[in-house]
Amino acid sequence: MQNAAPLLTAVIMAGGRGERFWPKSRTDCPKQFLSLTDDGETLLQKTMKRVGGLVPQERVYVVTNAEYMPLVREQLPALPAENLLAEPEARNTAPCIALAAAVIAKRWGDAVMLTLPADHLIRHEALCADALGRAASAAAESDAMLTIGITPVYPETGYGYIAFSRAEGMPPGIYRVDSFKEKPDADTAREYVESGSYLWNSGMFVWRASVYLEALRQYLPRAYEIACRLRDACDTPEFDAVLHEEFPKMPKISVDFGILEKSQQLYTIPGSFGWDDVGSWPSLRRVAKTDTNGNYRSGDILTIGTKNCVIAGGRKLIAAVGLEHTVIVDTDDVLLVCDADAAQNIKKVTDILNEQGRGELL
Length: 362
Prior knowledge:
This protein has eleven helices and 17 strands. By secondary structure, the chain is of the alpha/beta class.
């Protein structure tokens, strides 16, 4: 048990590809670097503002792919250069967090890590900050690994779910995670929501650096060995060489599959603060301003008898007549038109284009 006030750090994971937001989201400028709301802020900038209210900037770290470093520097010019951590290649979230934990352990000791994706939207930031703060306090005083769960408001089939129950010996409002559930079908999602015993998995995590490294030792020992080498090399002239040599040897696995599903000390704090992972084009109708007919419109858009659509224009006028539940996205080289209910299949389009060797469209 720790009695001192927690030293907080924050880790923003900004290396995703955002393929379900194609064709606006591209490999050279994925979703987290786009502005999807009227205020002009990108998702990354919103995430930085989110953690900035809790953690001083010198203890905020952004982990991204090497190719996105210029975008991060452009969008977060005040971020200390040494706090921008570049993965030599994408290895999924467990290695991403391991890199951050290694650096934080070297620089800040056994600090609490608030770990967040860069590409989510939250409507009620103060409530989110409260949940993160309570999780940080619990992490500072125990060896718990905590995730922020989201109280589901409808039976979403595009999210993973967390089964939870009462936790002995933990403060009020903190629950034990019993299991993770993969993205369910519609009937199962409805059962989850009606039961009141499930939360959406937000992908926001809180733990101490030593707790994460110990979890690596238990469940991903190869990743632990590499993380220790990175920690020892941090802030030495050898760090870049060690990073480029060792990081690609990390197992390519998510933190959910690699660690959390195996952990016996995993807890959750339910939250209800207007969270959305903005995982597909139709989600913009939930998180952004719509017209009186429920249409999300961006660009030069004319609609007649059109309802509940997402229309994102490019350089030309888009006129939509008599459409419902349709996604239209126009860019200089791609026009996407799809039924809103099929938007989760947009990734299949990018997979096919990749197989065809049409990388210039990705």
